[in-house]
What we know:
Structural class: alpha/beta
Number of strands: 11
CATH topology of the largest domain: Rossmann fold
Strand content: 15-25%
Shape: globular
CATH architecture of the largest domain: 3-Layer(aba) Sandwich
CATH class of the largest domain: Alpha Beta
Number of domains: 2
Radius of gyration: 19 Å
Strand order of the largest sheet: 8-7-6-9-10-11
Largest sheet: 6 strands, parallel
Helix content: 40-55%
Distance between the termini: 37 Å
Oligomer: single chain
Order of helices and strands: EEEHEHHEHHEHEHEEEHEHHHHH
Number of helices: 13
Amino acid sequence: MALFDLVDFDDHEQVVFCSDNASSLKAIIAIHSTKLGPAVGGCRLWDYASDDEALVDALRLSKGMTYKNALAGLSMGGGKSVIIGDAKTIKSEALFKAFGQALNNLNGRYISAEDVNINTSDIAIANTVTPHVTGTEGKSGNPSPFTALGTFLGIKAAVKHKFNTDDLTGLTVAVQGLGSVGYGMCELLHKAGAKLIVTDINQAALTKAEQELDATVVALEEIYDQDVDIYAPCALGATINDKTINRIKAKIIAGCANNQLATSAHDQALVERGILYAPDYVINAGGIINISFEENYSAEKATKKVEEIYHTLIEIFTKAEQQNKPTGFIADVMAREIIANGGK
């Protein structure tokens, strides 16, 4: 595969392939942009089907972080890292120390944090050998609750724009994925009076949602066919694709997953189907916002900043409607303008 010819290669500043036989580390670090500051973005541990798949994921995620950080008003660039392997078998102290050494080699150009299958304990191990991590225990800590809060507020913004109310009472939400962020979001939705239809590969999480949140459980592939108001993708990316888009009955798509659209063409396709899409890197920015307060941490200040997601999405929805453009397109334009203006 020719890196520079990849569709998802977007003039990335640097792509680093890391390997350490002793710890079984195989990782890719993608730095998309440092124009607004050091590239900041989490590390994902996933058992990719191929190295090519891992590379594409790193490229897409890192670009999303650039735009996410810009629209969140943060003095950070965009980067992302992926570790290739099965989280159930590959995790070790040696692995995360080796990853930390890989971060040291970048001299602070990229700062890593938690993402899928990586927790604060893992980051703490890396932190023993490198200062180039964030979201650490004793400081900003686990970003998941803030990502969940931001996503919940983003759903309220979408409901406000689409239905002219931000009251979620009686609305039905199909949630795909009950990880730490997805479940936290569901707790907030349940408290707000929404009805939940959920799916996940983790049976324990499904049982918990049934018992605690009165959720209805459906099979993995059935989640797209539910007659709901909102579809919330909260698992991995590209679930809105040629095979699923015509099955979605919801009027709103708003969830915490990254890279929800398989291609940019699906952004326009949602407009044509009358579905309001909350751009993923805008609605799920709560975690990185919380991390931006790492030094001299204040949960109160972080929460206040996360609440801005609601207003940013309202602005995007309004501009998209006025210009008859897809919301993802509008968000991209706004992000690029902020980057070109040095963060203003």
